Amino acid sequence: MDRILECVPNFSEGRNPRIIQQITDAIAAVDGVSLLDIDPGAATNRTVVTFAGSPEAVIEGAVVAGRMATELIDMSKHEGEHPRFGGMDVCPLVPISGVTMEETAEYARKLGRRLAEEVGLSIYLYEHAASRPERRNLAVVRAGEYEALPDRLKDPEWTPDFGPTEFQPRTGATAVSARNFLIAYNVNLNTTSSRRANAVAFDVREKGRIKREGDGLTGQIVKDDSGETVWIPGKLKAVKGIGWYIEEYGVCQVSMNLTDTEVTPLHLAFDETSHSAESRGLRVTGSELVGLVPLQAMLDAGRYFLSKQSRSIGVSDAELIKIAVRSMGLDELAPFNPDKKIIEYVLRGGDGTGRLAGMSLRGFTEETASESPAPGGGSVSAAVGAFGAALGTMVANLSSHKRGWDTRWEEFSKVAEHGKALHEELVHLIDADTEAFDRIMAAWRLPQGTDAEEATQAEALQAATRHAIEVPLRVMKVACDSMEIAKQMADFGMEASASDAGVGALCARMAIRGAGLNVRINGADLTDKKQLAIYLAQAEAFEQQAKVAEEQILAIVAQKIS
User: Fold this and answer.
1) List of domains in the chain
2) pTM of the full structure
């Protein structure tokens, strides 16, 4: 697994595109860094930049960015709606893959030290990188913002973790952290009153609002026995929020940071904000995501809103994303392009669909018919298997929506979810089969001049051959599993779609037999005959299982359609 960190620096400049471009161009020029997103805001006078790469490359990119921000941003002249205390205001590191949170915290400390020593910034560490418990919370670290820094830096309790301890008017201070993936999320309200927007924010954010006597609005602040202010917690854990007016849109927003989406997911933040707004005579008109969002957050939101409608959630990822966007109005202020807003899609250049699977049906057919040896029977077997699994999924989705079967929607939705997972894997295997063939060809092209080179090539050929057998075996296994979906839907699904379940079974059987041929022809080149015998026994078992299942399913279908 690749070791990937994400870095999301926030710069106190959102109005001068030339400054923003100079900073982001410097980041993009760092070898090994992928610039994922640039999100400037004029009202907040703040730009959120997202980039990712190997830990070493990301740290270098952050140092370069800090140096450019120091040269270009003068905090003594900064004004904006968002809390801030530095030109490079915050610079969190987020583990994406192959890196633990503990490792990320060490990288954050390394980054903080470099920003102090090489750029001259006053650095505070927060969240998982914090040097002491009272500095974990960013709001506490940044309390009083830039304007409070001159006095705060004189307090020994607030000496920076790295860098200058005296006030620097031009650069202010920078907060560096290791944290979980944070979703910056704004919910739009049909009001221009920032006071009312703040009231909604106080309702939902974890910190809540200060408790007051009397009507709770104008009375004296309530203190506890130790003289500390008493707070009334909000509805949502792991949520920070404020209300503000955005002049460029002419509306107020509840601006939230969702710091742990396993505790409070995106869709719950939207719904609770909507409930609070409605209780105060306001209405939510839409929302926006600042920066990138994990794919899982969007899929969970799509499933949540479909479930509220008692609709099957076993639909494509694209459909789930569309439902999420429409339900939360994520396209109200600007178009929502999944390829540019979902982090996994940005990193891999799309939704992960392979070259062959991404073709039109005509394009795939013509590519198969061409003089190229791949795609061949293996990819076609996977494609036909995907069609079979998709047909079973279709019957489940139709059955979940059948008039009079409203109480059974969850039953069919679970079947559809299983079917979706199967046909998605078979779609992936379309390209995997061709890639297996390419690996064999690459092994044949290795140098063969010396004994060592010939040994290396022979080893590579055997590894590629094993892979070229295991891919069609996986096609057989997944297609066999899909026959259970077809059987369930032939037996218990809509009778009008029984023939579709039957065709799904026929497709699965063809995929299994076709993939079995691939196993046998590729196995001829495997020198490990003991392993080959195991592969062939597995293939034979799948074929026998499919034969029995096909007969059972077609018997059920024949009874239904007669």
Assistant:
1) 4-178 (3.30.990.10), 183-348 (3.30.70.670), 361-561 (1.20.120.680)
2) 0.79
